[in-house]
Specification:
- Helix content is 46%, strand content 9%.
- Helix 6 (201-211) crosses helix 7, helix 18 packs parallel to helix 19 (471-478) and helix 18 packs across helix 20.
- The chain is mostly helical and 502 residues long.
- It has four domains: 5-90 and 251-318, 3-Layer(aba) Sandwich (Rossmann fold), CATH 3.40.50.620; 92-247, Glutamyl-tRNA Synthetase, domain 3 (Alpha-Beta Complex); 336-388, Orthogonal Bundle (Helicase, Ruva Protein, domain 3); 399-498, Arc Repressor Mutant, subunit A (Orthogonal Bundle), CATH 1.10.10.
- The protein is elongated.
- It contains 20 helices and eleven strands.
Length: 502
């Protein structure tokens, strides 16, 4: 093992989302590529919003992606593993108290008694004066008697960390290069402990990273402005400063920042849609990182072998649903028949549960369809749309969809009647795609029709859909009797639509 130690530290206040998953993946790939240690830590001090359900969603989502950690908490309070624990912040409160007490004793922090009303008034005054909002430092140099007076008045203090004025914080970001930020832009002295004694994010993350000997902090670009605060806290705590790497934001197609209000960000939602983990990991890895080649379909092992943090781009990574579906399709095609059937089974069951099909096909039935289905599945959930019509007892096609643009209902009924006779003559014994297609094409030629018109009418009649896998393969899968029965039903509906013959 190398000395490299990285971490992912999600807060269980919501489900695992794309940004956290991508950050976890990049930390994981970096650790595995360098022989380092990957740590999972739960930042659960927001007890009002943290839930066990969200914790399980995060852990299950990372496990689904194949991301395993070397150190971290057990699931839902189970046994943790690692020598730097505990790995839940609520179990580390004593350590934060000790660190805050030390900073107070060294005058690197102080008690602040300003009320929310006073702080709000100060903020409004600054806004009116077109000044950047920042803490005024009102309590930075209180005397002992002033503190006693505030406490006698019932004011409960927060703890503020002193931000040095007129200093430039500089660091070399692995992805973004040299970065300099003035302390005047940090908003004044920083609250690190609430009045109820619970620590705040900036403080806990620095204390934990220092205590757990984190060597590299790999996180999203949105944390870049927080880094100077963390560097100052590392210095104040007398701890080594880790190297930083800030990943590019994940953007929508219009290059706006992806958020749960505007986009689908929950990993569980993509899993429910039938994206498979091999493809999802592959796609997440390419959101901001490049192999330097034209290759795009890469296994986890290949990603680990090739991943270089220095090859991560600094510009935003645009999330493309179409590209994800394409990559998912590539990975579905790589699955063995048995593996694919196993993965499809819950999605076929979901079709039955939703009432979209009338019975559950046996594995052998699904296996027979794989040659025409596997190449066309963008997601596992698409199986219902592709072949669900095969497992419906009574298909009721839409008359409007049955009639091609160049035909009317009467013409379509007549054409389907002729097609039914041609299909019936093929017979059960010769019921194969290459036996069904030639006589139908001959019928089209004899009648002077467009093949697309007749075949579309047949497709809708026997499947209820305008787009399916190859028509004649689907007719074979449907069977001789059921194909004719569905054609009869469509002809009947069209005849009723066309009305009596004059």
């Amino acid at each position: 093992m190398s000395d490299i130690r990285v971490r992912i530290a999600p807060s269980p206040t919501g489900p695992l989302h794309l940004g956290t998953a991508r950050t976890a993946l990049f930390n994981f790939l970096f650790a595995r590529h360098t022989g380092g240690t990957f740590i999972f830590r739960l930042e659960d001090t927001d007890q009002a919003r943290s839930t066990e359900a969200y914790e399980l969603d995060i852990i299950n989502g990372l496990h689904w992606l194949g991301i395993r950690w070397d150190e971290g908490p057990g699931v839902a309070g189970g046994t943790e593993h690692g020598t730097y624990g505990p790995y839940r912040q609520m179990q580390r409160l004593e350590r934060y108290t000790e660190a805050a007490t030390r900073l107070l004793a060294e005058d690197k922090a102080y008690y602040c008694y300003c009320t929310p009303e006073e702080l709000d008034a100060e903020r409004k005054r600054q806004e009116a004066a077109h000044e950047s909002p920042r803490y005024s430092g009102h309590c930075a140099r209180l005397t002992a008697s002033e503190r006693v007076a505030f406490e006698a008045a019932g004011r409960l203090p927060v703890v503020r960390f002193r931000i040095p004025p007129n200093r430039t914080i500089a660091f070399d970001d692995i992805i973004r290069g040299h970065v300099e930020i003035e302390t005047s832009a940090l908003g004044g002295d920083l609250v690190i402990v609430r009045s109820d004694g619970t620590p705040l994010y900036h403080f806990t993350v620095a204390v934990d990273d220092a205590a757990m000997a984190i060597s590299h902090v790999i996180r999203g670009e949105d944390h870049l402005s927080n880094t100077p605060k963390h560097i100052l806290l590392f210095e104040a705590l007398g701890s080594a400063i880790p190297q930083f790497a800030h990943l590019p934001l994940i953007l929508n197609a219009d290059r706006s920042k992806m958020s749960k209000r505007k986009s689908q960000t929950a990993v569980a939602a993509y899993r429910a849609e039938g994206f498979i983990p091999e493809a999802f990991v592959n796609y997440l890895a390419l959101l901001g990182w490049s192999t330097g080649t034209e290759e795009e379909v890469l296994s986890s092992a290949e990603l680990i072998e090739r991943f270089e943090l220095s090859a991560v781009n600094s510009s935003g990574a645009v999330f493309s649903r179409d590209r994800l579906e394409w990559l998912n399709g590539q990975w579905i095609r790589r699955l063995s028949a048995t593996d694919l059937i196993d993965r499809l089974r819950p999605f076929v069951q979901a079709e039955l549960d939703a009432g979209r099909i009338d019975w559950l096909p046996a594995d052998d039935e699904l296996r027979a369809l794989l040659p025409v289905v596997q190449e066309r599945l963008p997601t596992l959930a698409a199986v219902g749309e592709l072949i669900g019509f095969l497992f419906v007892d009574n298909l009721d096609p839409d008359v409007a969809a049955l009639v091609p643009k160049r035909w009317d209902a009467a013409t379509t009924a007549a054409a389907l009647t002729a097609a039914r006779q041609t299909i019936a003559e093929v017979g059960r014994v010769a019921w194969e795609a290459d036996e069904i297609e030639p006589p139908l094409r001959q019928l089209v030629e004899d009648r002077g029709w467009k093949a697309g018109d007749l075949f579309m009418a047949i497709r809708v009649a026997v499947t209820g859909r305008t787009a399916t896998p190859p028509l004649f393969d689907m007719m074979v899968a449907l069977g001789y009797e059921r194909t004719l029965a569905r054609l009869d039903r469509a002809i009947e509906k069209l005849a009723a639509q066309a009305g009596p013959t004059p």
